[in-house]
Specification:
The protein is an alpha/beta fold. Helix 10 crosses helix 11. The radius of gyration is 22 Å and the shape is elongated.
Amino acid sequence: MNNFRTTFPYVSRELLNWFPGHMGKGMKQMQQKLKLVDCVIEVHDARIPLTGRNTDFKHTISGIKPHILVLNKSDHIEKQFESKIIDRLQQESNDPMHILFTNCKSQSCRGLRKLMPMAQDLINSSDRYNRSSQREFCIMIIGVPNVGKSSLINVLRNRHLNKKGASQVGAVAGVTRSVLNRIKICEEPLIYLLDTPGILEPNIADTETGLRLALVSCLQDHLVGEELIADYLLFLLNKHKNFRYVEVMGLKEPTDSIASALMSHAIHLNKMTRTKQLDGTSVVRPDINMAAKLMLKSFRTGAFGKILLDEDKIMCQNNSIKLKNY
């Protein structure tokens, strides 16, 4: 068996920081609307439950409001990890946490069925201050980019009102850019949701956090580089002895070289690119960038199996993957 890397090469954190203007503006708009909000639902990707949550939310948005953490896209992790994830999150929090796992693609998802009743119970048992005389409930949906906030709103709207989605959904981070008007999702009791833009912290905590956010599409691929993200994915797959990529990508054996893996993958799929030489002749070469994009797509659609990227953090508190510093 090949000898695989035990550490991932140093990557500049600057490459992984992404905080466009609409995020800062969105945070201010969210703070301004807080007086109209009874409960905050924070949505995050279940594959990275301990990585990349915006810590600013706790101090500036959720605060004293009832708070529910929804770990979405739970169909991409093994169910056996759910109780372990809850235990670790409870350990890290000083307050009791209300945590649900959801899969917006499944109409039978238990987490989706429990969400609105849980929110109503928390609001009814809380001090609503200036909103105590209001009959309707208003819930703000927050989270980092591309974790499924708009999809969650659309599913809840369809479930309770049997109406089509009111929030735009996309597979690229940053589709929702403004705090929208209230979206009605239930008539009795009257419940409105506020969709908000995905907001990252202005400075990514560390390289590992940035790369894991990039892997689950919370950062835009082209800003980080598809080949770099694919290399980190290969590193993690080998570290966890998940060699399903060999068959999916058409390789002969596991490899630690992303260049070799992408070259073979491009050839296997017959993805070629034609480049012009200085002398005017054309050369056909394997399309490495396209191969990287397809490798990432395979991971994100589950072709490599169910993968909890934070498994190391869940299973062993002090066993986080270390990155080289040069």
